[in-house]
Fold Thiamine-monophosphate kinase.
Amino acid sequence: MSNTPPATDRPEGSIGELGEFAVIDRITAGTTMTGSVELGPGDDAAVVTTPDGRVVISVDMLVDGVHFRSDWAGHEQIGRRAALAAMSDIAAMGAVPTGLVVAVAAPPSLPAERMLELGRGLSAAAAEAGAALVGGDLTRADALSLAVTVIGDLRGVRPVRRSGARAGDVVAVTGRLGWAAAGLTVLSRGFRSPAALVNAYRVPEPPLAAGPVAAASGATSMVDVSDGLLADLGHVAHASGVAINIRSASLQVHPRLVEVAAALGRDPLDWVLTGGDDHALAATFPHGATLPPGWEAIGSVGVPGDLGPVVTVDGAVREGAGGWDHFG
Amino acid sequence: MSNTPPATDRPEGSIGELGEFAVIDRITAGTTMTGSVELGPGDDAAVVTTPDGRVVISVDMLVDGVHFRSDWAGHEQIGRRAALAAMSDIAAMGAVPTGLVVAVAAPPSLPAERMLELGRGLSAAAAEAGAALVGGDLTRADALSLAVTVIGDLRGVRPVRRSGARAGDVVAVTGRLGWAAAGLTVLSRGFRSPAALVNAYRVPEPPLAAGPVAAASGATSMVDVSDGLLADLGHVAHASGVAINIRSASLQVHPRLVEVAAALGRDPLDWVLTGGDDHALAATFPHGATLPPGWEAIGSVGVPGDLGPVVTVDGAVREGAGGWDHFG
C-alpha cells in the first residue's frame, strides 16, 4: 500500500469508487500500534517482536450469512467479533495476542464508511487486548468475508493443548455460555431484545486474559468454546483419550436465558451446552488444584468406558449435541 | 479439529457430505512439518519457533473469479499459487518463510478430492520453501476463496522496507516479468498454449530465496511485484520519496513473450511493465554495489522532479500504467 495521507475519515461513496489503496490507507490511519510492533502496516509484511522465542498463530474466517448477518450487526461490531473470535484461540493456548492481520473480501458496492467501521472494530478490539492490527489484504468478492490471523506470545509458559486432560482432573469454564446462542435465536425470531443477549451475539466478551492465567495455574488442557461446550470438550476428550462428565447443576444458567427460553418455548440448557459464539474457555485442572478467579468447576475427567472418549451430561450422552459443522 | 485418523486420501463425495472436521483431518494428514514447528495443526493454534526474536507476517487473499479461475487451473495449482504469492511478501522483506495458516471458504458442493488437492498444493509449496502449513480454518461460502497468512524469520538481518531507496541507487529485478500476464491473455482468448506461459499464470515461480540474499547484500528497498512492476516500484518511489527511471532496453523480454504478443497484436512490454502475477522481486541497491546472482539492473533512483515521486520509463511517464486495483 502507498503512504498517501488520509484525506478524511468519513469518505463518501463505495469502496469500489474510492479504490483499494485509498481504503487501505484510511483503515491504516486509524490503527494503534503497540511496543511489540517493530514494523506496522504499509509494507509487504509487518514485523512483530517475539520475546518468548516462539510465536502462537491461528486463523479464523467469518462469512456474511454464515457466521454473521450484516443486517443484524453494524460493521464495527462485525470487526470486533472477528478479532475477538480469533484472539480467543490464542488465549486458549495460554498465550497473549500481539498482532493481527486481516484479509477482507467485499462487494465493490460496500460503502467505504462501512469498511472503515469494520477496520475500526478490528483495531479497537485488538488494542483493548494489548495487540495491534499490523496488516491486511482487501479484495473484491460477491459477499463480505473476513479471515483474521492472530499471533501471540507464550511469555515463557508451555502451550496448553487439547491433549493434556487426565483422569481425575477437574473440568472448569470461564466466560459466558449460551448468551450468543440465545441472542441468535431471538434475532432469528425477528426480535431485537433483550439487548444483553442480542449484543452478546453481535460482539462476544471472551475472557482472553483468563487463558494465560489458567496456563500459569497448571491447566492440563484448554479449548476455546467456539463450536459449543459439548463439541469442544469432545475435542479435548478425543485428543486426550479420556471421558468427560458435566454436572448440569454446576452450569450457571443466567436468569435472562431462563426467562427468554420460557418465552420462546426452549430449554436454556441447550444454549449453554451447544452454543458457541460466546468464546468461553473450557479447561481441565489437576484434582485438588485451586481454580483461578472466574473459573467454575462443572465436571470431571474419567477413564473412557465402553463409549470411548465421549462427553456426558449427568452421566448420559445427550441427544443431538454434536459439534457445529459449517457445512451441516 | 479432532484427531480422528484419516480413512482414505481419495474420499468420495462433496466437502458438505464429508463434513468440516473430516476434511480438515484429511488435509492435515498430508502436511509436512519442519524443525521450526513446535506444535502443528490440530489444536486451537500452532506454535512456531522464532530464532530471530521477531516474526514477519503477511496475508494474501485469492478469490475465485477475481484472482484465479477454477476452470483454468487445477486445485493443487490454486493452492500452490496462493502459498507462493503469500510467501513472496515475506521474501520481499528479506525473510525466510517458516509457517503458513490458511482460511478457506468453499461451496459445500465442492468435491472433497478437490479440497484435498488444494491442501496438497499449499502444503507442497510451503515444504519446498522450507516452511510448513501449520493450521487453518474451513468454512462455507458461495465462492471458493483462500486467505493465506505466512510468517517468516529474518535470521538477524534488518527488514528491507519500501522506504529505503535513495537517489543514486540502482534498481534491479529478479524473477519472471510478464509471463503470467501473457498466460492470462492467452487463456482469456480461449487458448491453452504456449504451455510455459499458461503454466506461469497458473503457478508462479517467485524467486523466494533471492529476498534474504538481497537483504544480506545490502538492498536498500525491496518489493514483491504483485501489482505490476511500474505500480510496485511506484509504491517504493512514494514510500522513499524518490523518482525511479527504468531503461526499457534493460528489461528482458523473453522470446516467447515477443512471439505470443505478435500473434495476439499486443506489445510484450505492457506485460513486462504491468503484469503482476509472476511475483518477481524488485529492489534497490547502493550505486556500485555488486548485485547478487540472478538480479538484473534495470534502472536508477533519482531525486524527484516536478512530477514528484514517480516511475518513468526511458524518462517519460508511461500512459495507462497505474496499479492493479482489485475494485477497478
